Amino acid sequence: MSKTVTQGVPEASAAARPRSATPPDLSITTLGPLLALLIAGLFFTTQSDRFLTGPNMSLVVQQVMVVGTLAIGQTLVILTAGIDLSNGAVMALGTIVMTSLAVNAGLPAGLAIIIGLLVCAAFGVLNGLLVTRLRLPPFIVTLGTLNIAFALTHIYSREQTISNLPDLMTLFGNTFRVGQTNVTYGSVLAIVLFVVAWYLLAHTAVGRHIYALGNNPEAARLTGINTRRLLLGVYTVAGLIYGVAGLLLVARTSVGDPNAGQTDNLDSITAVVLGGTSLFGGRGGVIGTLIGALIVGVFRNGLQLIGVASIYQVLITGILVILAVAVDQIARRRVA
Amino acid sequence: MVSSWFPRPLPTGRPGRAVLGLAVVPLLLAACSSGGAGSSAPASSSGGAAATSAPAAAATNGAISVGLITKTETNPFFVKMKEGADKEAAAKGAKLVSAAGKFDGDNQGQVTAIENMVTAGVKGIMITPSDTKAIVPSIKKARDAGVLVIALDTPTEPQDATDALFATDNKQAGVLIGQYAKAAMAGKPAKIATLDLAPGISVGVLRHDGFLQGFGIPNSDPQVVCSQDTQGDQAKGQAAMETCLQKDPSINLVYTINEPAALGANTALKAAGKDKDVMIVSVDGGCTGVRAVKDGTIAATSQQYPLKMASMGVDAVVDFAQSGKKPSGYTDTGVTLITDKPQTGVDAKDTAFGLDNCWG
Questions:
Q1: N or C: which end of chain B has fewer CB within 10 A?
Q2: How many beta carbons lie within 10 A of that of residue B345, not counting itself?
Q3: Which residue of B has its CA nearest to A262?
Q4: CATH for the B170-303+336-356 domain, from 3.40.50.2300, 3.40.50.720, 3.40.190.10, 3.40.250.10
């Protein structure tokens, strides 16, 4: 499988060639965001002695892990030149299904979690089928499923927050100690997901196919990639990842909240874009996305520590997003 | 094959990528340092309150810092609340740190704000919970870390999840306008529309029930011909009133959860040519609302005092930091009926008083 790619893609699309030479996430485009993150960190370290401490760093990771995990799925979709507006709503539906089945219907927690994850994956399948079979634009498809998932969440939950969750459901909110620092299992799971997704994208045939598809779908198809099946797979895996994000959210807040996730679709796109992944597909990767999510988290946390109202984090995020996209565009234009 | 969601730029080979990648670095560098400086400058110039004038020193110079977490940044009610907290903090030599959810109902955002404030070393947090149940575990964590937590305006569920609650008696706010409406109707048969908040939100339920109690009818009374949710939003209030008029054009009394909903309802009534025959009563006492009472759009409104909630909250936190004394239970921050057409037997103040004490 990987043989056909390494031979096929360069012939079909010159654009894909550098990709196979350098692993996508270690490319120089990740350095900009990384530098921004480091400088922000440095700034806050000089301004507050509470910033660069183990517990606070652990807190920042906890605070970005839900959006970060959503953004892994979003990265996969955006790499195929798609977009997923439904992820926050799908996640919220997953959390309500999980918590309601366990608390209100009395199902064993493990089974309830699995059903919740499957519901999210099913929405991924639905998105994927609509994109590949009916050839509808992902923007419209996921705008539709966003509303469907949102409505189902509110109908199914009857607008009620679900609390008193079984212990298994909040397992990922539990912590273990590293020195003086409490780290949640959820943070570890999120990091593991990032590493797995990075490996998948950078070092497997499927990963290269995803980049090829995002760069030039027609060329990818001509090299023998089953692009429909690949896309369906991407949306399905993304859906499943949203379910995991839901599990992390439940663990973090200890409740099933029907109002959760309403801005998480845009927040996840923000993380992806800040991390240097191109909205036009085919360029970027999940390490950048992790950095993007951390940039938002570091500003939110750091500004609070130095006593600046949180609205300035939103302002700064807006500026950085425009910068990141502008850099991507200028890069493309110059090269073209 | 793959439909892109917006136009794809020209295909690119990328020989120049490394060079351009390098160009990213100084750009982001500049963005970052200016972002950092810019972030503290506006805070210190806005409002000129001492609370935010030295953000860099917040954690280090020993002043008592107080957190305020509102539902949103933009609602005038919360803007006034923040103003009250800012002023009182300045007067007491304390520092105010504020944060808010992104939208009404954003629990995650409030959870994050609580965590960051606890890390920042605040002595106490005042919060208007967006989701009264979902926020409880996070409040517990803050209290376990020794932080005083006071709910403002909206109680948590259960109410004793916070150390104290400083809020309007929302039931009483409803009762006042219910009694007023009963007296103003002077025995005429009433056809009532209630423009409510949203299902399951205690503030809305309390005001609604209070109104009916003041009017002297049970919840299922046939005089209530239409009930719609508005989320306290003007456009949704208008739509709700339009729907209610479709249902029963003879409606002659409208209870509204707040003044934006009331103004929306008035727009709908005007369009139907009924604004002169229908009485609207409301709750809040925002400046726009009181002016609407003055010009007769709204017959009467129950005014509440967000500034007072916040300044009492700051006092309580400062007191706790200095003496270790914790406030407890519920403190009523007061509510006043505002109208220019007083009815006998119902205590009220006029709109001049209302405008002196309004918010927003």
A1: N
A2: 9
A3: B106
A4: 3.40.50.2300
